[in-house]
Amino acid sequence: MRQSIHAVTSPIEARVVIPGSKSITNRALLLAALADGVSELCDMLISDDTLAFVNALRQLGISIQVDAEKHSCIVAGGQGSFPKKNATIWCADAGTVLRFLLAACSIAPGTYEFDGSEQLRQRPIAALLRTLCSQGATIQPEYAEKMPFTLLGSEGLLGGEIEVDDSETSQFLSGLLMAAPFAKTPVVLKTKNLGMHSYVSMTCTMMADFGVLVRRMHHGSYRVLSPQRYMARDYRIEPDLSTASYFFAAAAVTGGTVTIQAIDRRNSLQGDIKFLSTLEKMGCDVIEKADGLTVKGPAVLQGVSVDMRDFSDTFMTLAAIAAFAETPTIITNIGHTRLQESNRITVMRKNLENLHIKVEEGDDWIKVYPSIPVAGVVDSHHDHRVAMACSLIGLRVPGIEIDDAECVAKTCPEFFTMWESLNKRIN
Question: What is the CATH number of domain 3-18+241-424?
């Protein structure tokens, strides 16, 4: 599907309801599935990735009732294990389904076949497989480094000190943390990578919300006592701040105002809350009130230099609006994004250059210069964040089209309907 983006002729003035966080939804689904008792998750995201997680848990024998209209679900916890000991788990495009459930399926005996889309088959998993094998699990074929493969769970993780290479993705560490309470002995997870830990902090906080304490030690180490039990609870999920970034940036790039529902800026679980500080450096005003969080764009955007390792899902949002700033923008420490749904640095550079925007890229950085973009087609490479970010350019430049636009269903199926509504809310 190719989606045309309609340019606006005056500043956007809009109030937008942002769906729930994908990262929080999928963590909450797993914690509720492993808990003792019945949990209700409210304001959850209903998207391809979260439904893939729901379906995978159902394949493992977890009872889940989803109310898509109310964006909620009821999860009957498995009391620390999955009822089905033989299952085929289809991960679709969702890295969290693969990485989180691999670790969770290792905590008890069972035979689990894992497979997913061609895109997901190419994403990093070998380091996690090696770690799980060192903890007592078995992988068939023995030296598998990508799906499909079969995991044979043991009598639980061995525990002890575990070194985790999370330079490619913090999801390895998060998956092991959530499985750690069921290890035979206390677990100390030592990471080789001291950055990109906003998602790990999210995991630790949510584990505590479900009754399991994680001690955060110095030098990137985490200690989890075992045995511990997750306890069911009713849990409300924050709006997705990765998705919100596109709408906040729409205010920035048009000199308008966009408000989303209220969120506690200081205590948000999501690292992407830092994107608001970047917009402030570009000249935006951020206003937090009880009834909503508002961004007001300036008359002229200023370029910035920013390390985005800990909120890199929004780097494409920034890159897309950077051409409209008065000075260049350089985004650093984003090399790990080359291993996500696409090689995001190169894909963004090529798309921006195709629209006559001057760009430079390095191994872990991208620099965008003030430019006068022209109409053209954006190749999303089936990457939802590329598709949504480049839609920002279409607000200022008539004739922008997004190819393979249906990929936004991964995290925000209604994105283009929401985007089109921005045109209808201009004063």
Answer: 3.65.10.10
Number of separate helices (H) and strands (E) present in the chain: 13, 23
Collapsed DSSP state (helix, strand, coil) of residue 53: helix
Cα–Cα distances in Å, from 298 out to 98, 281, 381? Answer: 42, 11, 32
pLDDT digits (tens, 9 = 90+) for 416-426: 999 999 876 54
β-bridge mates for residue 376, sequence order: 400
Which residues does the annotation mark as catalytic?
313
What is the rounded distance in angstroms from the CA atom of residue 107 to the CA atom of residue 331? 40
Q: Return the closest-CA partner of residue 323 out of 271, 389, 267.
A: 389
Which three-class secondary structure state does DSSP give residue 270?
coil
Give the angle 272-276-277 at the CA atoms, nearest 5°: 105
Which CATH superfamily is 22-228 part of?
Enolpyruvate transferase domain (3.65.10.10)
Cα separation of the two ends of the chain: 30
- Output the 3-class SS for 73-103: EEEECCCCCCCCCEEEEECCCCHHHHHHHHH
- pTM of full prediction above 0.70: yes
Q: Could you give the C-alpha distances from 133 to 126, 149, 183, 242, in angstroms and in order?
A: 11, 13, 14, 34
